[in-house]
C-alpha cells in the first residue's frame, strides 16, 4: 500500500517504520529539516528500544521528506501523526493538524482519492474538522471531491513503542465507511493476525498465549473519545493509588502490599497501580486537561478527572514538604536529582515530574545537581537558563549533598552502592519517589528514607 505519514515523532516514526517493514511503500514527511536529515543519514532521533533495528528493516520501503513539494499525490492513505500539545489554558493546540489538513487540500491531485487517517490525539469532532479544512482548500481550487476521513487513535507507550505497535491489545478505527474499514483492515492484517516475522530485540517479550489484537470499529467520535477516556482512566488509577498511599503512610500500611492485594481481584487488575511522585509525560498531563476542558465546554463537570489531576499535583508538592520537614530551610542546600525523563527507557522529558520539582527547588534557593542516563541533553536544551549542575558520573551526585531525590526509576539506580555513597553526603536523606529501593540496607547505611506510602518506620 502507498502511504504518506505526516509527523515523524514517537508515534509517526514508529508507525511509519512498522508499516514500511511490513512491506508498504511509506513516505514520512516532517517539517523539521534537521530531524529528516538525521533520518536520511541513518540516525534515530529519539531513544526508543528496537526502533533503530526496525528502521533498518524498513529502510528500503521508507522515504523521508521535509516539504510538501515532494508529496506523492498518488498515495492511497495519508496518516496524520503531528503533535497536539497543550495550550496555556489546558486546551489542545490544533495548529499543526489544521496546517496539515490545509496542505493536503492544497496538494491533492484532482481525481485521486486518498483516505485521511487521524492518529494524533485530537478532541472529539476534530476528524470532521479535518475533512472540512481539506474540503475548503479543494473548493478554492474548484475541486469537488468527496473526502474519506477516519480516526485511528494510538495507544503505544514510550519506551515500549515498537512492542506496543506490534502487539497492541486493540486497534480502534472510527469510521462510517466500509471502504475505509476494508483498506485499514488490509493494512493492519499482519498485526491483527500476528503473521509478520520480524526478529527484533525488544525490552519485553510477548507472553505465550496472548490473544490476538481486537479489531474494534466505532463511530468517528467514539474513537476520538476512547483515546482520551483510556488515558484519563489510567491516570485516575495512578492518582487513586497515590491517594491511598498517603493514607497508608499515616496508618502504617505498605502501599505495595495494598496495591498487590487489590490488584489480585481481576476486576481491578495490578497494572497502573504503582504509587509514586505522580504521573507525567507527553500524554497524561495534556490529555487529562483536554478531556476536562472538553467537558467544561459541553457543561459536564468532570469531577473524577479533576480530582485525578489535583491528586497528581499534591504528589509533587509532597516531595518538597518532605524535604522541608527533613532539612528545614532549603536555601543553599545541595540536592541531587536521580532521573529527569518522565519515566525510564525514554529520553522524553515532556511533562516530567523532575521539571516542577527542580523549578520549585531552584525557587527556594537550593543548589541542584542532576543525573539521567539519557535525558540530560534534552533537559539542558529545553531549560538552558536553569542553574543546574549536570553530573556525568553518577557517584558524584552524592558528594556533599544534603538530600537525594529519586525521580525516575531507571534500573541502574536500584543497585547503586548506597552504603559507600552515604559516606560522601552532608546529610543522608533520600526520597525514593518511585518506591524503587530496598529500605533495610539504606537505613543500615544511615539514610533517613522517605518512600511513597511504604512502611519504613
Ligand atoms: N508519544 C506517545 O507516546 C503517544 C502515544 C499515543 C498517541 N500520541 C499522540 O500522537 C501525536 C504525536 O505525538 P508524538 O509524541 O509522536 O509527538 P512528537 O512531538 O514526538 O512528534 C510530532 C512531530 O510532528 C512534526 N510536525 C508538527 N507539525 C508539523 C507540520 N505542520 N508538518 C509536518 N510535521 C509537523 C514535528 O516536527 C514532530 O516531529 C500526539 O497527538 C500525541 O498526543 C502520542
Ligand atoms: O503504575 C504506574 C504507571 C505509570 N506511572 C506514571 O505514569 C506516567 C505515564 O506512564 P506510561 O503510561 O507508561 O507512559 P506513556 O508513554 O505516557 O503512555 C501513556 O500515554 C500514551 C500517549 O497517549 C498512551 O498511548 C499510552 O497508552 C499511555 O499508557 C509516567 O510518569 C509513569 O511514571 C505511575 O506513576 N504508576
UniProtKB/TrEMBL annotation:
Location of the active site: 283
Organism: Tepidibacillus decaturensis
Example of a GO MF term: NAD binding
Keywords carried by this UniProt record: NAD, Oxidoreductase
Catalytic reactions of this protein: UDP-alpha-D-glucose + 2 NAD(+) + H2O = UDP-alpha-D-glucuronate + 2 NADH + 3 H(+)
Residues at which NAD(+) binds: 30, 35, 84, 121, 158, 286, 350
Domain UDP-glucose/GDP-mannose dehydrogenase C-terminal: 336-439
Protein name: UDP-glucose 6-dehydrogenase
Annotated GO biological process: polysaccharide biosynthetic process; UDP-glucuronate biosynthetic process
Assigned EC number: 1.1.1.22
Superkingdom per UniProt: Bacteria
Assigned protein family: Belongs to the UDP-glucose/GDP-mannose dehydrogenase family.
Family annotation (InterPro entries): 6-PGluconate_DH-like_C_sf, NAD(P)-bd_dom_sf, UDP-Glc/GDP-Man, UDP-Glc/GDP-Man_DH_C, UDP-Glc/GDP-Man_DH_C_sf, UDP-Glc/GDP-Man_DH_dimer, UDP-Glc/GDP-Man_DH_N, UDPglc_DH_bac
Residues annotated for substrate binding in this entry: 155-158, 227, 272-276, 280, 343
Pathway the protein takes part in: Nucleotide-sugar biosynthesis; UDP-alpha-D-glucuronate biosynthesis; UDP-alpha-D-glucuronate from UDP-alpha-D-glucose: step 1/1
